[in-house]
Structures are given as C-alpha cells and as structure tokens.
Amino acid sequence: MKPWRGIQGSAEARPDEEEALEVARVAIVGAGSVAFSVSLIRDLCVEKDLWGSTVVLMDIDKERLGLVHGLATRYARETKADLRFEATADRKEALEGSDFVVCSVKVGGYEGMEKERKIAERYGYQGGIGDRVSDYYGGIGAYYQLKFFLDLARDMEDACPDAWLIETANPVFEGTNLVARETKTKVVGVCHGHLGYKEIVKTLGLEEKDVDALVAGFNHCVWLLRFLHRGEDAYPLIDRWIREKAEKYWRSGKFQKPRFPWEGEQLSPSAVDMYRMYGVFPIGDTVRSASPWWHHTDLRAKKKWFGPMGGFDSKIGWSRYLELREKGLKKRMRLFSDPTASLTKEYPPVMSGEQHVPIIDAIANDKERTLELNVPNMGSISGIPDGVVVEVPAVANGKGIRGMPVGELPKRLMLGVMVPRMLRMERILQAFLDGDRKGLLLEILEDHRSTSFERAKAMLEEILAQPWNEEASKHYKWAR
Q: How many domains does the chain have?
C-alpha cells in the first residue's frame, strides 16, 4: 500500500488524507480512447471498494487527454466517488509506482490500415490481408501494436515491476503471448466477446439465472463448450430453434435491417454452419474471425452468411462501423464539452459489464472472483501447450489469476480451427521477433487467395513501402 496522494474526484478532501492509504494506483494508457475510458471510469466510480485509488490517465493526444480528464473528475463529483485523477502525456510518469496498467492503445488509428486494405484488394485480396479485421490491427503483421505492447511491458519492468498489465487493445491473442513470453510483466488479456452466448439465451427465451454456460478457446476464437438449462443439456434447444425458427429469424426485420453491422451475427447462417461443422457453437467475434474462408470470398457470400450488410468485416459493415464510431465520438465530444450537462444521466452509474475493474478489485482487495480471461494455458485446455495464452474461466484474487480446467475440445475443432489459429499466432510473432520479412511473406502465402509467390511478394513490398510503414520496413528484413 502507498501513501494517499490527495483527492481530486471527490467533492472535498478528507480531513485524514495524510494518514489514508491508497487502495490501488491504476494507469490507463491510451486514455484518449473516449468510448472505452467512459466505461472504465464509470466502473471505477461505481465500485466503492476501490475508492481511495489514484487513476492516472495517459495519452499522447493532449486534447483528448484533457477532455477525458475533465470527464473523469466531473463523473466522480456527480457520483461522489472518492478517487483521484491525474493526467499526463508521459508514459513512464504514468507507470511509475502503478499497481495496474490498462492498455487500450490503437497505434496510428485506422487510416493506414484502411489504405493497406485497398492496396491488398488490388492484388486480389478481397477485404484485405486476412479476410477480416482479426490480426490486422495496426497494419501489416500488427507490427506497431506488437511493438507498443512490448515496449510498454519493458517499461513496466522498470517502473512498476509488480504491476499487472491488463491488455484490452487488439490483437489480444498475439499481444498477451508476446508479453508473457518476452518479459517478466504479469499480463492478462480482457475481451467481452464471450458474452455473446447471452444472445442465444435471450433468443431461446431462457432466463440467464437458469443457464450454466462454459465458453473457452483463444481470444476471438471461443466456443460454447457447455450449455445447461436448469442442469439439463440445453444444446437440444438450439437444435430445435435451428429446425423450427432459424429461417423465420433470418427473414425478420431484426436480421434483415440491423442497426449495427455486428447485430445478428451470433445466430447468423454462418454461426449455424460453424456449429454443424465443429459440433459446438461459436461465440461472439468467433463467428466472423474464425469462420471458414468460403463465408468471405466476396460481398455476395458475406451477405449470404451474415445478412444484408455482409457482417462486420464487409465493405458495407466496416464502413458503417467507422461511420458510427465517428458519429459517436462527436456526440461524446459535445457532451463532455458542455460543463452543464449531466454525465450520470447519459451514463447511469451502474457497472458496464466489462471485466477490467472487477480484475482490479479482486486482486487489490483480495476478493475472489471468477471471470473470463486470457491467461497462459497451464493445462486448462487439453492439447494446447502451457505457454500459449487461452481464454478460459479464471479465478482472480489477492494471489493473482489462475485459469480453470476446461478439458478437451472436439478433435475436428482442434485440428480444423484451434491448431491453425495457434500456428498463425506463432508465425506472426516469429516474424515480428526475428524481423523476418520472409516470415511475413510466408504468412500471406498461407492465404487461400494467394495466386503466386511473385504477386504476394509485390503486395508485401508495396505495403511496406508506404510512408507510414517506414519503421516496419526497416524492422522486417530478408533473412536467409
């Protein structure tokens, strides 16, 4: 525990603040990510057992940082939350003495990534490298994201060696594996995709309290391994829904006229097809990022499997997402810039459902919680090496985080999806760690759309020659 550093978020300072102890020091790196920061700040203000903590907001965009800092202090005042908020553009300053570091950084935004996608499409790679927005975060080979994660973790080794890195920025699978293997920093990956099973529960007309669900796999590649309703196997209820109601659902307004590009994916024809192939239901982002290539060959195929927008990763869906993202950001900017607006009216003080703050609360206050987290396997999923990070139910408390045993996955799923996904992660990390341009090329050549070695190489060279990839181009060299 560390001495209290003062109070900024509460209505007034406590008279005994000199003697009070800080519950936790939490650094949010990439705090300018406004939508994410809103949820995290709200949860910190709602969780009273974390009051007495210091929250350090860090971002290199000083305008966004100032906006979020103002939001945080206003929200804390409205909720009377006993928290102190600091703001800095200096990463090492933010890390110094922290107990928890939340990473939500997207290096360089989406502009470069979108230009790379257009280059790839000229070479016949519909949708860009990798078909879907899965490992492509941060551009070619996810270079800038991976470099940032590694630099951050190494800074933590010096500034806060006992702190936990809570990785929420993508690619979580590659990123958590990289940090866990290459540094001594304690890392846990967080995602909310596993909650997709609740859409199945709702559609089947079941009560969540009566359902026992086990979801596990890799990040963005998780599966409904156990599905019980009042102690009985509920998979027959899914089978009956597919036989009797799926076609009607796919013709309904909810599926045919989605408000958001991801709406309806959980019970889409693609999800049902994957269930028929692998014997267990894909959950959340898995439906788009682990679905087979023939669901993604062109826009017509995407519309067949994912609905009128073609899913999140189609030209229509992704453009719609970027449009909604920009619109949402402008709305929040107007709200936060108005000092008379009530933030708690727009964002009621209830927990968001994200797991970052529950992790912090469990470890800082030694409260045992079971969460769905990305941690080194250590025997949780049979057949996966211990050193590979898996997404499984995990117990978090004052002693740390421990993944729970899951057992075996269906063999067809292991061989058809899990092992290939694991090997893709290994190839991406090998290329990154070795600075191996040939490794990047070999990864591209694994894509079913590659028609020749020469064409794939030409595309890689053109992408790396772009001005925003100058650093990446120097990093990746032709090795023997």
A: 3
Whether residue 188 is found in the same domain as residue 228? no
- What pTM was estimated for this model as a whole? 0.92
Catalytic site includes residue 448: no
311: left (phi over 0), alpha (psi -120 to 50) or beta: left
Alpha-carbon distance 321 to 162, whole Å?
Answer: 38
Q: Which domain holds residue 198?
A: 194-313
Instruction: Count how many Cα atoms sit within 13 Å of the Cα of residue 111 in the half-sphere of its side chain.
Output: 6
* 478: in domain: no
From 99, 285, 313, 361, active-site residue:
285
The rounded radius of gyration (Å) of the Cα atoms in the chain is 23
| Measured distance CA(423)–CA(185) in Å, rounded | 24
152-196 per-position pLDDT tens digit: 999 999 999 999 999 999 999 999 999 999 999 999 999 999 999
Task: Check which CATH number belongs to the domain holding 84 and give it.
Answer: 3.90.1820.10
State the catalytic residue, choosing from 61, 192, 273, 447. Answer: 192
Q: Is 194 noted as a catalytic residue in this protein?
A: no
d(C-alpha 409, C-alpha 424), whole Å: 19
